[in-house]
Every structure is written in structure tokens, then in C-alpha cells.
# Entry
Amino acid sequence: MNAAIKARLLRVWRVVRWPVILVAIYLVLALIFAALTERHGLVSPETVVSPVLLLVAVPLLLLRLGLLFALPAIVAYRLVVRLIAPRRDDG
Amino acid sequence: MIALGLAQLCLAHPAWKERYAPVATRAAAKSFLPEMRDFGTRAWKGEDALASLDGPHGHAYLAYAALALGMARVVDPAFPRDLAAQHDALIAAYERRLLASPTGLIETYPGEAYPTDVAAVAAAIAVHGRATGADHAAVLARWAERVRAVQIDPASGLVVQRMGAADGRAHDAPRGSGTGLAAYFAGFADRDVAERLATALLRHESTLLGFGAIREYADGHRGGGDVDSGPVVLGVSVAATGFALAPARAFGHRDAFTRIYRTTALFGLPVASGGRVRFASGGAIGNALLLAFLTSGPEVAAR
# Structure
């Protein structure tokens, strides 16, 4: 891989790394949450919610809200900025 | 609630009857086991609901199981005879108690009546009529009249969550969770009452960005979450929102149903695997409830 391609891939990775990392964390948490809730849910009418379930559920729900609502807006913003901003090599 | 959901599916899709009707019967029979009503027996100081059918105490909590049995009886031609006899006796006791009540309320626990539980009693009586051909029109008409006169808060249109069975005095506020579930049950017994409750419930919908949720307390009332409502966040409750799916679907409030379902899917975290979908946040009980509400429709409503 030549240096130009490597630099280009690195630039793309810098743009997408946080969304990719957050989506990966979300998917892992979703899998754990699904396994933990086979019988006892988070919001079903049971009096005690286990701390472990809460520990997974809170970041999972926050991430879900973030990925569904904030991420598309941020990605759209960054794309538009990239499209309309003058390139460095334009002089 | 699993029995109700499966029976509703059988009514909506008769081809599935062979597969799901026996499962509905098994689920309903399980809900009728003595250990499933331990909490009620303890509350009545050891008096078992089925051992005291000639007595005056309401034991309205058992109506949920009675309704499940009734729906299973409607769809399952092989419904066990011994269970049917117990079901008949319980419905007869409920009918007698409801006709004797000046408020149209019968107790769930000593001194405490829940209009929602009594709506389940009415639903159980109505569905029993559908399963057996028995005429329960008089008791159902009286129940519907008493709901309109005594149990609905005139200002909000919501039912009061807890009341005195004998005097009809409010022990709690008019609330969305009780009204949502009562609207679902009333759909089996009296379409006018059900529609009235559904309309009031959906007037308490809060919306944001295409998502909908139901406020737990009527205007002018405040309170926190409890075992009936689940968590109450920013005034809206998990239970009232989930329960509203059933009347919204049954009465064709498509836009409200869509908004409320979006919220359910957002926080319910649906998980699909092996051709099945479950809501991870709901657990076993939440999923059983959602099965019943998401399959509720005009095909089960009283005509």
C-alpha cells in the first residue's frame, strides 16, 4: 500500500472512527442486554431491577438515542462541511 | 396475557387455530393455578377465591385468569370440561357480586376496588357469554352504566385508579395506566365504554418528533410511579403508553398507534431471532402484555 492510499484511508478513518466505535459498543451492549433480559425485563412490572442490568441498560439506551438522533445529524453536518469547505490544496 | 394474545391471533387468523389454541388453553390453565393467586389469598387472610364463590368478597384479581380461560374456550374446541365447570362457577359468582354492587365495583383486596380489575371482570363475563351462549346482557349493561356514572372522572375522562367498592370514593387519582388497561378490557364487554376510555386516554398523549407517550396523571393530579404505572418519566408512564397500543389499534387511531409504537420500539429494544421478535426491555411479563395489546382488535370487541 503506497503512502498516498494509506494517508487517504487514515483521513477517512478519522472521519468515521467515532461513529464506528460507538456502533460497535452499541451492538455489543445490545447483545449482552438481550441475553440478560430473557426472563426479567427492565421496565416490566417487577419491583427490583438488577444493578447489572441497569449498568448495561443505561449506556445502551443513551447510545441508542445518540446513534438514532444525534449521529445522523453530526454525520450530515460533517459531510456538508466537507463538501462546501475549500480544499487545502485549492490554494 | 399470553393466552389472550394467542386467542386473539386465532380469531384474526383462523388457520392458526390448530397450532395456537391448545397453547392458549395451557397458558390460561396455568394462570388459574392456586399458586398464581397466592397474593390474593394472602391479602384476604387465607380466603381462596375459588373456595369462597358463595361469599361476598370480590376477589376481582382472578378475572384476568377468568378472561384468559374464556378466550381459550372460545378458540379451543378441546377445552377441558373440569376447567370449564370451574370457569362457569367463577363467572356466576362475579355476575352475582357485580349485580349486587351499588357502585358497579367489586373488591380486589379488602376495602379496595380497582375499576381496571372490574373491567377485567366484565370482560371475563362477556367472553364467557361468547364461549357458552349464556346471556349476560343485564349485568354488562349495569356495569357499563356504573362505569360512566361512578368510575370515570368527568374532567379528564380517565378512570380513577383505586376506589372504595362500597361507597365509590376515590382512593387515588384518575390515571392513564388504569384507563389504558380498562379500555382494552372494556373492548370485550361494551364498545361504547371502551371507545370513551380510548378517546380520553389518547387525549393524554404527549408527542415529540413523531413519538408519542401517555401521561400517567390527569391534569391537576400529581404522583410518582408505582407497580401499576412502572416508571413515570417527565409525566409519562411506561405502562400507560404500552397499554394505549391496544385501544389505539382496536379503534383505528392509526396515527396515535404509530407514534406510540415508535416509542415502544425505541425503548423496548426489539430483538429479532429465529423468525421471532421480542422486546428486550419488557422481559417475560412485558412481552406477554405486548402480545395481547399488539393483537387486540375489533374482532374481539363486544358488538
